[in-house]
Specification:
two-stranded antiparallel ribbon, 160 residues, 10% helix
Amino acid sequence: MSEQQVNLEDIKGVKSEGIDLNKFHKKNVKIESADVIQVPSTYTPFIEGSDKEHLKQWVLKVSSAVLETVGEGEGKIEFRASELFNLLQDEKGNLTGFPAGDKSNLGKFCKDLRVDLTKVENLKILQDYLKGKEATVKAYDKDVEVDGKNFQRTYLKFLY
């Protein structure tokens, strides 16, 4: 191993290229996936026998194709629009259905995509209907706290 002498006064700051996710606002994109997953929630009942841990919430996670990629390999970050739509579950956390009403967020989203939920027989068919549809991206800024410091981050979801 060799040692190099470096004059620290010669080392200047380098401004990295940031990604302005706002450039995707109101762009039409294809929906790539519509997956049924569970996510942590503070709005679901507590797990039986616990007064601190909530049941996970069943959601339909709708995601666009990748809009932007930064880096490669393990450090690669992919940016895509995504949205979580709550599904219906019973008090024991069993998935029981999906909201098919016009006033639900899923109903509004589907109406915007011209998917008639009254004709969708089950969740599997809904997933199939959504994949490949075109949706409009909404870019929005949100204040987040990281290590006690506040930052503004841009997120991508769907406009409906």
